[in-house]
Amino acid sequence: MSNLREDGLRVFRQMLPGALPDSDDDVEFGGFAPELMEIGVENVFGRLWTREGLSRRDRSLVTLGILIALRATEEMNAHFRIARQNGLTEDELAEVIYHASGYAGFPAAATARNIAAEALGEK
C-alpha cells in the first residue's frame, strides 16, 4: 500500500511547484490546527488526486466548479494555478467561469473571475 502522505506531497509539489520544501522531512505544518493540512495532503492530494478515474485536468475542472459554487475564495486562487499546471488554458478557465454563472450565479462567477485574474497574474 502506498504512503498517502508521500503521495500527497508529491502530487502537491507537481501541481504547485515551489509551494513546499523539496524534502518530505522538511514539511511541517505549524500554527493553529496543523493536522488539518496533514488531512488535506493525505486525503485530498494523496487519496483523491492520485485516483485513475479522472485525469488531473478533469479533476481541476470539477474542483473549480465546486469551489466557485461554494464561493470558496481562499481555495480558488491555488486551484486556478493548479488548473493551469494541469493543462487548462486561460480560455478554458474563462469558460468554466462563464458556465458557473448559469448554475452558481453571477456574483459567484464574478468573484471567481477576480480571483482567477489575480492567480494568473493578470491583475
Automatic annotation (TrEMBL):
Stored SUPFAM superfamilies: AhpD-like
Organism superkingdom: Bacteria
Name under which the protein is recorded: Carboxymuconolactone decarboxylase family protein
InterPro entries with a match to the protein in the record: 4CMD/NDH-1_regulator (IPR052512), AhpD-like (IPR029032), CMD-like (IPR003779)
Any single Pfam family the record assigns to this protein: CMD
Organism: Mycolicibacterium pallens
Residues annotated as domain Carboxymuconolactone decarboxylase-like: 34-118
Region forming the signal peptide: none
Gene3D superfamilies, A to Z: AhpD-like (1.20.1290.10)
